[in-house]
Amino acid sequence: MVLVNRQYKDSLFRRIFSDKSDLLSLYNALNGSSYNDPDELTITTLDDVIYIKIKNDLSFIIDDKINLYEHQSTFNPNMPLRGLFYLSELYQAYVDEHNMNIYSEPRLRLPVPQYIIFYNGTDDEPEQMTLYLKDLFESSDAKPCIDCQAIQINIGFGHNKALMDKCCRLYEYSFFVNMIKDNINKGYKLADAVEIAVNYCITHDILRDILSKNRAEVANMILTEYNEERHLKALREYNYEKGFEQGLEQGLSSGIEEGLERGTKEGLERGTKISEIKMILKLHAKDFPVTDIADIIDADVSRIEAVIRLFDSDESLTAEEIADML
Residue ranges per domain, the chain? Predict the structure, then answer.
């Protein structure tokens, strides 16, 4: 059994492209260059910089460019702000390493920043898009003094074929992740879906060196990534439903006579309770642990266990019937 470390996660993407040869191949594929000496890369990844429990993937300098590569399994319009934070750390480290004086002449010579996001999620995103920091600012006539742009590239299997043809490792990574998703869609549990994909890829020489040497670690990476992605997706879904209900409750309660308002409030409270039970059962059916469900819907573990216990004793029970029994 693979144990999942929820305190910190590395990513398979980072593990693959931490190898200088593979990273150089990816850079060449993106930039149409033909560098062949991996030692021309200067790795600048800051290992102690962690956002949202996810270590930043990769950064390096080559050809007077400082490149920041990030992998994302969910779309995030705030990536330019993350990039700004991380790039500022990189430039500070660069200035310190080269003993540069920012308080006097002459003019400093700095590498040009390039920020690339490799998207490999389940949502239908375009082949490539550019995200801008300026789009996050409040509307104003004032012109912002800074901007940061992030180029998002869809590396889901079947996307950006020309790029995949130029970088074999990227294609193999995309194939491997897609096979896991396909296995899940066929009804396999996540751990089994990963195990089947690992065995197939090792047999067919796809990421074979990494998968065979780091089998348990790779499985742990995938399980952690996928579980956190599911957690965030479920949290967004629950918050949406909860927000809708609260908005409905507020809208109905305004302007209604006291007696009707009291009855409506009681009905809405029951509706909210039933909606919560439905969400618990939905997450339970997807094998979410009780503690994760508690985090998502912000409820006591004991309450969730009571709902699951009732349902497991009689799976014909509806959410409404369970609500009446609690």
Answer: 1-166, 231-260+269-325
